[in-house]
Amino acid sequence: MTTLSAVVLAGGKSSRMGKDKALIPIQGIPLLQKVGNVAKSCTDTIYIVTPWPERYQHLPLPECEFIQENPHNTQGPLVGFVKGLEKVNTEWVLLLACDLPNLQVEVLQDWVKRLDNIKGENIACLVKNTQCWEPLCGFYRSSCLPLILDFINQGGRSFQQFLKLHPVETLPLLKSDMLFNCNTPEDLDEVTGDR
Q1: DSSP symbol at 6
Q2: How many angstroms separate the Cα of 52 from the Cα of each of 70, 78, 151?
Q3: Beta-bridge partners for 25
Q4: Which among 13, 15, 36, 39 has the fewest CB atoms less than 10 Å away?
Q5: How high is the pLDDT of residue 183?
Q6: Contact predicate 17/182, CB 8 Å
Q7: Is 115 exposed, middle or buried (0-12, 13-18, 19+ CB in 10 A)?
Q8: What is the C-alpha to C-alpha distance for residues 119 and 174, in angstroms, rounded to an integer?
Q9: What share of the chain is helix, strand, coil (3-state, %, to 5)?
Q10: pTM for this one?
Q11: Which residues, 6 or more positions from 148, have their beta carbon under 8 angstroms from its beta carbon?
Q12: Helix (H/G/I), strand (E/B), else coil: 69
């Protein structure tokens, strides 16, 4: 447990959804709380990166520490992740977006068990779909922080572009719907069965 922290990103503007995704209830539990509970099953050290910590203070998120982004200058998930990485002092970091309603504790715990056997040159362990990596549900070595900062300082903002530059271990995933993210009202209908 001591070799892993979690960073949950809750900085998106939810413009396609039309309301704050992090607070949308799935089976009665706000999405951010649901994702926080999943993270808690893997580690006791959880950071939530968001420009609006006051929006989420009322949620029961025990042992989660809020890290505030600048609400007037959010620059995407990679920059948000850096905010979390700067706090971390464990070897590995579980990164999760706050809009993943189908996360499965058992799958994540199985992935955690694999971390001890990852070759040293791999900066991350992620699921790969047909096109690209799934960067917002997976594991990163905290030692990749200087590499990300260097990439950002050169104008980079894309997780995909960053990951192309470095070796990444592929995680197995049998059911791809676990990484379904809830971006629009139609996505929400699919998750809640209101189709």
Answers
A1: E
A2: 9, 18, 26
A3: 30
A4: 15
A5: 61
A6: yes
A7: middle
A8: 23
A9: 35, 20, 45
A10: 0.89
A11: 78, 81, 82, 85, 162
A12: coil
- Mean pLDDT per 10-residue interval, the chain, length 195 residues: 84 64 87 94 94 92 88 81 95 94 92 92 92 93 96 94 96 79 61 53
Q: Would you state the structure tokens that stand for residue 26, as one six-digit string?
A: 């799935």
DSSP 172: P
The pair of three-digit structure tokens given for residue 162, joined into one six-digit string? 């960053």
Alpha helix (H) residue ranges in 8-135: 31-40, 53-56, 77-85, 105-114
The distance from CA 65 to its chain's CA centroid, rounded to whole angstroms, is 15
3-class DSSP string for 111-168 = HHHHHHHCCCCCCEEEEECCCCEEEEEEEEEHHHHHHHHHHHHCCCCCHHHHHHCCCE
